[in-house]
Each structure stands twice: as structure tokens, then as C-alpha cells.
Amino acid sequence: MTGAKPWLDRCTTSARLRGRRSAMRVQDIMTRQLETCRADDSLWLAARKMWDHDLGALPVLGGDGRVTSVLTDRDIAMAAYLRGKPLGEVKVSDAMSRRLVTVQPTEPIRIAEDRMRSEQVHRIPVVNEVGSLEGMVTLNDLAHHLQTPASREGLEPAEVARTLSAISSPRTGPSGCAPA
After folding, report:
1. Which residue range is the domain that position 119 belongs to?
2. Residue 159 lies in a domain
């Protein structure tokens, strides 16, 4: 018999689909040990934590212990520039982002990568079903995940490159124009 073997095609397709269902999850690559801050902390304290632990961002926790925002080193720099006050006099709540993008630990890493690209963020807090912080997944985590071919499951290098490009593109300003 010449031609395709339908039973073989079905088996191959089934194996591919099973592979997708068992794709690596966010919990497999996320950072679990995190430094955090609170909205009423000073920017000085947050900057000190970032410096001491070589971090570019801190999850901001609310009074109930749930993540409410992410404070980045850029947020601190811009607040210092725009407010003209010592960092000890400015609260985290005055500088933190007002939007929060999260992912759950059981979601495929592809979902985290897609959210990073669409929201132009370098890192996403990982929260459980009740909103408690469990970790952080970063663009660095995705890059490290791609270093060995055996661990690339569920993620393509070209997709991560496109994500880096999207994250690095200027956002539009309030008038719809890119910042000068």
C-alpha cells in the first residue's frame, strides 16, 4: 500500500496533543523566593530591598497579603525625578503601577509569555486561585528555560524574541503618541 497510514497519523496527532497538554507550567520555571513591599512603605525601603537583593521589581502586597501591584526600579526613578523629594518621603503607593497582570502557577508558560508581550511587562506575579502570591515569572526565566533544547517544551525561541521586542517598544503616551 502506498500513501499515508491514517492510523499512524492519528497516533502522531494524539501524541502531539498530549505533549501540548503536558507542556511546562509557570510553576516549573517561576521564582518562588521573593522580596516584597507594601503600599505604605517608603520608596527608600523598596529601593534598598532591590539593591540588596539585585532585583528590578518588587511585588506590592495589600493588607490582606494579596498582591496589588508591582513596583519597578523604573517606577522609583521616575517618582524621584517627577516629585523632587527624598525617597524616604515618597510612598510605594505614589509610584507603583495601577494595573496588575497576573498568571496562575498551573497555566502553561506560553500564557505567561503571551501576557508579557501583550501588556509590555518584563515580569508577572504568579498568584493562586485566591490571589495569594506564589512567585514571579520573568523574561529572564523564559530565557533561561530556552538555554537547553530538552527544556524548551511549550516555548519557541522566536516567540520569546518577539516578546522581548514588544516589551522593549515604546508605549504610547496619554495623547496616543510615543514618548519623546
Report:
1. 24-168
2. yes
